[in-house]
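Schema walkthrough. Field components (list of strings):
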Amino acid sequence: MDGQKRESLMEDGFKPKIIIFCCNWCAYAGADLAGVTRRKIKPHFRVIRTLCSARVDPEFIMHAFKKGADGVMVAGCHPGDCHYIGGNYRTRRRMALLKTMLMQFGLNKDRFRLEWISAAEGEKFATVVNEFVDTIIELGPSPYRKMIEEKRNKEPAALTNIG
Amino acid sequence: MPEIWDKKHKTDTRHIRIEPVTRLEGHAKIDIFLDKDGNVEDTYFQVVELRGFEEFCKGRPAEELPRIVTRLCGVCPWPHHIASSTALDKLFDAPPPAPALKVREMGYCAHMLESHLEHIYALGPAPDFVLGPAADPKKRNVFGVIEAVGLEVGKKVIVHRGYAVEIEDMVGGKSTHPVFSIPGGISHPITSEQRDRIRELADKLVDFCEFTLTIVNDVILSNKDYMEIILNQDLYYHRSYHMGMVDEKNQLTFYGGKLRIMDPEGNETAKFSDEEYLDYIAEHPVPWSYLKFPYLKKIGWKGIRDGMDSGLYRVAPLSRLNVAEGLTTPKAQRVYTEFFNTLGKKPVQNSLAFHWARAIECLYAAERLQELANDDEIMSRDYRTISRSVKGEGVGVIEAPRGTLFHHYKADKNGIITDLNLVVASAQNYGAMNMDIRNVARQLIRNGEISNGILNMVEMGFRSYDPCFSCATHAAIGEMPMQIRIFNSRREEIKRISR
Amino acid sequence: MSEKITIALKRGASCVGCDIAVVNFNEALFTLLSLADIVFSPTLLDVKYDDLRAMPSQSITIGFYHGAVRNSDNEEMAKVMRDKCQILIAYGACAHMGGIPGLANVTNKQAILEQVYRNTLSTNNEDHVFPQERYVDQAGHELTLPEFWDEVKALDDVVDVDYYVPACPPTHDINMQILNMVKLFVEEGKPLPPKGTVIASEKNLCDECQREKSDHLSVEQFFRVHEKVFDPDKCFLEQGLICMGPATRAGCGAVCPGANMPCRGCMGPTAVVSEQGASMLSALASIYQISDKENELAEEQIERIMSQITDPLGCFYRFSLPKSELGRVVKDTKTPVKEKKGKE
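Field assembly_structure (string):
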């Protein structure tokens, strides 16, 4: 996303920036399948592939929000199907706790989702992502993204918008 | 020979600023405004710091507070730690077993000593009285005192204060920011090795406190010039109320007693338990400081003045000795009697007497430490009660080195803090500090003539209270709403509009 | 005999525990005084701000700044210290990472103002009086207070910092490490460590902690400190008590576990991570037991289990909130009320 031309949040309507972490064996394959079967998916997301959803460190997710992501999703194999046996068991605990903490930070809980998507679930990938994009459009830009904008526009007074 | 007075010089300025004030715990400054003749028009003692504990502690699990609120103050974390856990004993319905209360008090006595000795030797009276108020500012500090009294005495002071720190480390886990006091008791029992060591150190500390009182006597009480300043009712003196904690026999106690208020004539006007504090104490904000002024609710806020009809009151060593009818330990009790024989009938109102009262409290704390260290119960394995339910509210009170401290918490049914209120020690002396500074400045600064020593004597106006402004200002600020006051031609206020 | 160096001690938004840490050098204070003259310390000396400002640039050898930066006065004096001192050390958790005052990043000026000066139970403020940054009294006297910010920062957010000394407050061992460093520098000209060094251990607290640790850690339930008695010999995490040890740097001697209380992370993150909270969150989630019925557990049940950890933000970022990835709490839009499809 760096290096790309940045649009102002006020012009042209809000264009959400969404990051989706996909595990290689299930979710990424499912995303691939969605593409191959030509599912219509709204374009406002980027995929980051990891070998397992358990590789997704909570720090990556917080970093994404800090850098202006409006929504973050983590997608992995269904419990019981993890390529590494028990990786996604840790993922779900981690993400449940992270969700609580992100809410403590003030973020709307709907900006962060955990989904189980198998390699065969191309349709599910499309449905879930479209739904997520709609949710994010409804919520508007993330407050952390607004902070970046305001700093760039040198409007420090806008920072008291927080809290 | 101490330097008490120095050569004055004339100043043209009409606004003298002392920034920051030094040899205290906290961030503050003094502004002195002179009229065109060079006489003092007004003074302000502003506390300039704040952090926001009463807001950011909301949402925290209540049982975590004893380790968060210690950071209100690194000089007196112990009173916050224990007052906090005392409030939680009630909030979590976990009354501690008697041995736990004794261990808390024992560790606390060591803290009292550590804090008081630090003030006596490093922050307050030692530099000001051993070297003199007008001594060279570059030397007028603990290092200058060590130079003057010699390395042997200096080492003795440091080593003995170190004993108090050692006891704090043993009992509290950490001397600064202790961890051991928790809802329902304490986290670990005292072993017999620890008890033996504490006993050994307590004996040394009692001796050292007697030595300290000898120094107070030799340096201050035997010096005619100093006694003149101390007793001068135009300088460091107020006719104020006093408050302190006492036990059932009205003797001084730091923990577990009731609060007693004495009026300027020496009569008891109230005695109340911790839970009732809101009936007696309220706080008044001002636009020029981050520190609020606590005052007696039943009298009301009457401004920064003293006397029978002012709501301001004082706390800490002098007030505690005034309010108590005696001390429970023999050596300290003897000096207590001597104190009132020397300074007159209760209540003693001379602000500089706080220094002597502080040294007497040291001896009491050391003797009490000795008592508790010799009590086998402190080694009991019955040191904790597990929470039975979440009652959701609790008040904890303790006599901090600098005055009475109140912690009041409210929590939801999950024990998460929803509201808290802190009335901190030094705030209760803030009015008196302002008045002492004003009186001293008015008396000593005439016709625009000032000196280094005079400005230090102005600072001594707050130093006798050993203030702790980190505690006092747990808050933060923002924009000020507007207030319009409408007066008629007779200067009577007829309407007030606020937003 | 080598020439003495000079030292300055300045505080920001601090509890002053770090000044006490210096007083607690005890007899080693004499060693320090043989190596250095303390030329500025409002707690201990009668040297005022104007005296400090009048000192030439870079004329003080080492400056110790403790406390967080959260008002204009803290920032101005941090810059003055940077100018006057050749070496500037962020001393203590607050200067290092924001410390406990950093927790104020969960809130803002307005909320704190309302709470302290109006809503607290003992406050009587019918006249709506709040402290003002500039106030003129009826006689025309002007008084000022430092400008307050919404946000708390660590020292290196406003000035360049040479070294960091963690812990709240820095322990005696860490202080002796510093003293030794200074001694070798002054007496033998031994170079100081590389700029940016954190003066403590490179290890993780669990290494230093004396408690027994099993090879395999699997927690069945998380408890809160008031809910159970703790075995003084076993690892806290094994007992279901949250202890920040795994995500915390060593060097403090693990005194809190020694007093039978779990670590709360004041030494800051370990040498290899920057995000203390994320590390701890990840670690805690990893040690929660995997049950036989794992595949039958729904996400809501998992959320309920993890909610046994009551205050992740306040626990994992107790001392490091300003230095966390997100840095501060924000306000977000609420989800419009309507039928939601699919699971979260």
